[in-house]
């Protein structure tokens, strides 16, 4: 199979490698997965989730990209080949899973901006999904990476909701200082590469209990 | 776009309609979605999940089918077309989500068998995934449909684990009477079509609390 640069309809590059990487490049406890600073955030999160999974710390997966399949060939003695398919808009966020009995739901977003996080990184349906999960007692957030400075933050979804709702009358981005003050700074680690569950622990402490 | 009968590599029919159905055929509260007894279980569950979502009762989605994309065309002025792609094995179950603060994770399986549920309906990685989720305090189960009698059961994952582990020395299926005695019978309903969350409530009562 040839490997090409594949783009979403919006032009964003599709990182084919992510899930292959999970399958073929499982870091064991004694392997170094540190220093991949040029990696897309998605791959960094996937590696971190693999570490969490292998160490029984959490079960969090990236959802596959939704595809509308139109035509499939079934060649004899070889795998079925999808010959025509289209990208569909996802109705949820990219990541969800379970951690210490809590449902986690989040998006991971990179920005080239140096001073703020543009809200057009989100679609309306993603915010709607996060809100529905929050309402059900899920722990919802965004992991934001400022690429130019390699800074990482975990931003609680409620801050995102506030800015999202004020878009029509207010600004169209969340200032970095607001993210830093209201979110949690994540430092790149060793194992996992992005130790975001430490910050999820803090977020859980802030969240009201929703079990009935 | 043409609609063809699409099959998984194992020959099972891929129900293209499921997610379209969710998008284009949203039942409102006053619409009847009852009586679709010939529907695949997947579509029945998807409709039920849509009802739960629209009524703020739970947020549960079917995961997209994982696809390995090899070639994509970008025609001018029209949507990107995937020209070559392959089915990948999923590393998780089909359904997960959040309900009253609980993480739910399950598979939905149909069987033509009249007396037992064959364990070869499951892959090892799905059992492994369910076990990992159970360990993290998730509520894990299977919804089993006996097609010939249209009977539905919610089977707690722990029963599945027991039979799975005894496969090498014991039987390769779970007898229907074991499912009926250890699981919960689900009666087809009106709205939702499959009111499985009522049985999840009972399962939660049986499950030890895992939050830390």
From TrEMBL, chains A, B:
What InterPro entries does the annotation carry? Resolv_RecU (IPR004612), Restrct_endonuc-II-like (IPR011335), tRNA_endonuc-like_dom_sf (IPR011856)
Give the E.C. number(s).
Answer: 3.1.21.10
At the top level, the lineage of the source is: Bacteria
Query: For the site Transition state stabilizer, which positions are given?
Result: 109
Catalysed reaction(s) here are: Endonucleolytic cleavage at a junction such as a reciprocal single-stranded crossover between two homologous DNA duplexes (Holliday junction)
GO molecular function terms noted in the UniProt entry: crossover junction DNA endonuclease activity; magnesium ion binding; nucleic acid binding
What cofactor does this chain's UniProt record say it requires? Mg(2+)
Give the co-factor note: Binds 1 Mg(2+) ion per subunit.
Keywords (A to Z) from UniProt? Cytoplasm, DNA damage, DNA recombination, DNA repair, Endonuclease, Hydrolase, Magnesium, Metal-binding, Nuclease
Q: Which Gene3D superfamilies match?
A: 3.40.1350.10
Any one biological process term the GO annotation gives: DNA repair
Q: Where is it found, in Gene Ontology cellular component terms?
A: cytoplasm
Protein's cellular compartments:
Cytoplasm
Q: What is its main location?
A: cytoplasm
Q: Which residues bind Mg(2+)?
A: 92, 94, 107, 126
Job description of the protein: Endonuclease that resolves Holliday junction intermediates in genetic recombination. Cleaves mobile four-strand junctions by introducing symmetrical nicks in paired strands. Promotes annealing of linear ssDNA with homologous dsDNA. Required for DNA repair, homologous recombination and chromosome segregation.
Family designation: Belongs to the RecU family.
Task: Write the protein's name.
Answer: Holliday junction resolvase RecU
């Amino acid at each position: 199979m040839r490997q090409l640069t594949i783009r979403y309809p919006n032009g964003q590059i599709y990182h084919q490698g992510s899930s292959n990487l999970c399958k073929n490049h499982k870091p064991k406890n004694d392997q170094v997965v540190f220093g991949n600073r040029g990696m897309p955030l998605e791959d960094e999160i996937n590696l971190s989730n693999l570490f969490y999974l292998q160490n029984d710390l959490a079960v969090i997966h990236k959802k596959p990209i939704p595809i509308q399949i139109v035509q499939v060939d079934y060649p004899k003695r070889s795998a079925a080949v999808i010959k025509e398919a289209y990208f569909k808009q996802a109705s949820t966020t990219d990541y969800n899973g379970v951690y210490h009995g809590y449902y986690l739901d989040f998006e991971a977003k990179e920005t080239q901006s140096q001073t703020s996080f543009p809200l057009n990184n989100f679609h309306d349906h993603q915010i709607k999904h996060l809100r529905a999960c929050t309402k059900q007692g899920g722990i919802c957030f965004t992991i934001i990476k400022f690429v130019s400075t390699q800074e990482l933050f975990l931003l609680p979804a409620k801050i995102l909701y506030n800015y999202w709702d004020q878009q029509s009358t207010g600004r169209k981005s969340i200032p970095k200082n607001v993210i830093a003050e209201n979110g949690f700074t994540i430092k790149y680690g060793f194992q996992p590469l992005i130790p975001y569950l430490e910050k999820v622990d803090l977020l859980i402490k802030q969240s009201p209990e929703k079990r009935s």
